[in-house]
Every structure is written in structure tokens, then in C-alpha cells.
Amino acid sequence: MLTPTVECVPDPKNPNYWNIALIIKIKSGNTQKPFLYEGEVQILGEVEVHDSFAGDKRELARVNGASLLYSAAREMMLNLSARSVHGPLCLPVLNFVEFFANDDQASQKAGKEPEKPTVPE
Q1: How far is the C-alpha of 100 from the C-alpha of 5, rounded, in Å?
Q2: Buried b (16+ CB within 10 A) or exposed e, 31-41
Q3: Does residue 68 contact residue 44 with C-beta atoms inside 8 Å?
Q4: Is residue 42 within 8 Å of residue 85, measured between CB atoms?
Q5: Measured between alpha carbons, how far is 70 from 77 in angstroms, rounded to an integer?
Q6: Burial 51-81 (b: 16+ CB within 10 A, else e)
């Protein structure tokens, strides 16, 4: 089972900068058929949005930033696991447009605003 978690926070000092944290948890979903790899990857990044982007379009930093971090994590996992006895692990491709849309819809159904979490320093 693959569980991604993304935290995106605009920098309070500069609205063009976004701090992004991506956490990927990999674990077995079925105890009868355990997965060969289990673990957690955490990766942090900072994304800058150009001044020409309007305020509402700056939210694209969430999608693009998370996509950049996830592709880096996929590459790292593939490189590390390729040296394992069990062979390489290639994480699936994720659509972060859909990911954030589903997350925002779930927050709206719960009757609350989408969270604005803090990124660990």
C-alpha cells in the first residue's frame, strides 16, 4: 500500500515561495501476502512562482512542487532498491491534480477549509 502525504505552505515572508513536504509510506496492505519493501521516505522542497502568475494560479505550486518531489523520490527508491536481493521497486505514477482535488473535496464534505499545515523546519 502506498500512502502519499503532501504539506504545502506559502512562505509568510514571500508569497511567491512555497515550502513543500512530501511523505511517502510504503507498507503491506495484506498480512497474508506481505510486501517485500516497507518504509517511509520524506523529502522537502521549496518552489518559487514567477511574479506574473495571478494569486489564484499560484496554487499550481502545490501540484508542480509535489510532482517534482515525487519524481525525485521515485528515482531515489529505484536506485536504492535496485541493489536489493528483491530487485528494483518502481513507485507508480501519481496525478497530483487529482490528488489535491480529492483532498479538497474531502475537506469540503467534512465542512471545513482545506488545511494549511506547517512544514517542519
Answers
A1: 10
A2: eeeeeeeeeeb
A3: no
A4: no
A5: 10
A6: eeeeeeebeebbbebbbbbbeebbeebeeeb
pLDDT of residue 107: 67
Residue 10: the pLDDT is: 85
| Backbone torsions φ then ψ of 26, nearest 5 degrees | -120, 125
Q: Does residue 82 carry a pLDDT above 50?
A: yes
Q: Do 37 and 26 contact (CB within 8 A), yes or no?
A: yes
Cα 40 to its chain centre, rounded Å, is: 12
Q: How far apart are CA 99 and CA 75, in angstroms?
A: 20
Q: What is 2-109's CATH number?
A: 3.10.420.10
Mean pLDDT computed over 93-106: 84
- Dihedral over alpha carbons 24, 30, 34, 37 (to 10 degrees): -10
pLDDT, mean of residues 74-82: 94
